[in-house]
Each structure stands twice: as C-alpha cells, then as structure tokens.
Write a structure and sequence with these properties.
Blueprint lengths: L11 E4 L4 E3 L7 E6 L6 H12 L1 H6 L2 E7 L3 H11 L4 E4 L4 H5 L3 E6 L2 E6 L2 E5 L5 E5 L7 H5 L2
Parallel strand pairs: 3-4, 4-5
Antiparallel strand pairs: 1-2, 1-5, 3-8, 6-7, 8-9
C-alpha cells in the first residue's frame, strides 16, 4: 500500500464514456480515488452507494470521487445507470492504475489464492500528495472512514 505523505502516482485512464481522466485533472482539488473489485457485486455496490449518498457532502468539502476497477466501460455504464452513481468510474482492464496504486495483488478467498483487485482508497490533496490510505474498507460506512 502506498504511504501517506508520498506523491500520488500519475494515472490516466478512460471512464465509462471513453473520456480520458488523469491525475492532472485534479490539480488544485482534493480527490477520493477508490479501487474496487467488481461492478454490481454486494460489497462494491454498498461502497458505491455509500459514496453516492454522500457525494454532495464530498463536493461541498472540495472533494471529487473517482472509482477504478478492472471492469469494462460497458459494465461501468450499467453500474452507474442502475445505482444512479454521480461520479465517474475508470475502466482499468490492463491493471496499470491498479498496479501503480498497489491495489492489485495476491488475494486469498476460501483458502484459494489468486491475483485480483485489493479494495483500497486513497485521499489525495490539492498538491497531489496522499493524505490518507485506507486498506480495511468498511463498504457500508466508507464515507465515515474517509472523512474521519
């Protein structure tokens, strides 16, 4: 996991509409960059909906929210439409952003090991510095973790 106080790695990826989003787009702004395993699964839906329900609060505090997963843009479009998500989701099918942010790695589930997305959230300040790194995400109460 990347450490607090370090510079956020540069990223660039396509959102659900094929538009390019990069770290540079958030210069001078605060960013909640969250990594999640899969669209429309119970934990990922709970996390996205918690962030959705508090999105206006994030905006009022000067934050933008961006989600990143390995899912396709088409999957992201369906996820956004179904749950009325107000923020963009980046499709990182090649895992480049996931790896840069150390959100891709070995996972254990039911005794089996496999490579996958490690649910992680980074809070990045206006200067591009990581001010918080959350490894143990509480999907139903993630906003409270971020804004603590």
């Amino acid at each position: 996991m990347l450490q607090k106080g370090t510079k956020a790695p540069y990223f660039e990826g396509k959102d659900e509409n094929g538009n390019t989003i990069s770290l540079n787009d958030f210069a001078g702004k605060k960013l909640v960059l969250y990594f999640y395993p899969k669209d429309s699964t119970p934990g990922c839906t709970a996390e996205a909906c918690d962030l959705r329900d508090n999105y206006k609060r994030f905006l009022s505090m000067g934050y933008e929210v961006i989600g990143v997963s390995k899912d396709s843009a088409a999957s992201h479009q369906k996820f956004i439409a179904k749950y009325e998500l107000p923020f963009h989701l980046i499709s990182d099918t090649e895992c480049e952003i996931l790896k840069a942010y150390e959100a891709w790695g070995l996972k254990k589930l039911y005794g089996k090991e496999s490579m996958g997305t490690i649910r992680t959230t980074y809070v990045i300040d206006e200067q591009g510095i990581i001010v918080d790194a959350i490894a143990k995400v509480d999907t139903k109460n993630h906003t409270a973790q971020i804004l603590k």
